[in-house]
Amino acid sequence: MGSSLRGRDVRSIVVFKQRHIGDVLLSTPVFRALRVSFPGASTAAVVNEGTEAMLSGNPDIDRIVIFRRSRRDAGGMVRGKEELSFLRAIRACRPDLAVQLTEGDRGAILSFLSGARFRLGVAPAKPGVFGKERLFTHLCPPPDRYRHAVLRDLEILAEAGIPPADPSLRFFFSPGDRESLERKLHRAGVSGGMPYAIIHPTSRWKFKCWTDEGMAGIIAHLSRKGIVPVMTSGPDPAEVAQADRIAALSGVDCALLAGFLTLKELGAALASARLFVGVDSAPMHLAAAVGTPAVALFGPTGAYNWAPWEGIDWGYTADRPAGTRQVGRHIVVQKEGDILLRGKDEGRRNPGMDEITLAEVAEAVDRVLLTEAGR
């Protein structure tokens, strides 16, 4: 471990988390820990365009610096101007401390160019730019493969003597977000007081998806219990079409909101739902953040890193890296075995997902509902 930063004169902090939506939400315990350890410091989050809703409104964050990927993808002069503007925005924070939560070369270089005196990072699992480890003043060893993503991030802070605070996720939406959500629910046939569940069967990565028939069966199962199924998806037309197809296949009435909700509205919807049922996705993490129990279906991705998080370690090990288990209010449904060698590419279905049965998921749903009824 490097020297402890506790008690040091840290007035400005930048935290880099340039990843996907769910990854950004999982970083919120880092911001809580930094606020508690450095209550007088100004903290900026550095994220990719499209993920900022996960952090906006969070009282632990004073500023969000956004890298506009659409300009990067344009290439040429447009990309060059965006990169320069982005770096200027980071340096304008005048950070004393930079915390890099990813392992890539770009992140290490940005941390160094931020101008921060103290730079925290994690040793890369794979080789990168020669000597990039020396761009950090505090370097966390490579994480254990079976460590949850939240704990991995907090271990980077621990390398500088910064302890965790509240390890739970934090997500914030406004009264306006709730009001617009309620209008959309009402138009979809869900009136105030009606119990409902959020069903999110889609992912941009098809290998994460369960069978349409299985998800349709769960929708019918919930409907028979008097719980209105509310279908959601990402905005991609292919995801919306998949969600609509599953709803029709179920043979019961569903509230169709696939592709119609903002991330803030989805958080508000989840906060009032009886439960979430879906695949490994950002909405699954949102459910955990707002305190809604989740039945999460996993196949080729590691629940040991990405299971719904409420501050309780799931306890995965090399001896048992997969399998169905319950922790707190959440249940992961997953087959046993080596999950990462079974069809993990964008265009393929995954055998591990296809082997999950309707009976297994229905039993998990019933168990969650029974647990919640006893609270």
Description of the molecule:
The protein is of the alpha/beta class. The protein has two domains: 12-158, Glycogen Phosphorylase B (Rossmann fold, 3-Layer(aba) Sandwich), CATH 3.40.50; 176-373, Rossmann fold (3-Layer(aba) Sandwich). The chain has helices at 21-26, 28-37, 69-74, 76-92, 105-113, 149-158, 175-187, 212-224, 237-250, 263-271, 282-289, 303-306, 351-354, 358-373, and strands at 12-16, 42-48, 63-67, 97-100, 118-122, 138-140, 196-200, 228-231, 255-256, 276-279, 294-297, 325-327, 330-333. The strands form two sheets. A seven-stranded mixed β-sheet has the order 9-8-7-10-11-13-12, sandwiched between helices. The protein has a six-stranded parallel β-sheet with strand order 3-2-1-4-5-6, with helices on both faces. Helix 5 (105-113) links the parallel strand 4 (97-100) and strand 5. Helix 2 packs parallel to helix 6 (149-158), helix 7 (175-187) packs across helix 10 and helix 8 (212-224) packs across helix 9 (237-250). The radius of gyration is 21 Å and the shape is globular. The relative contact order is 0.11.
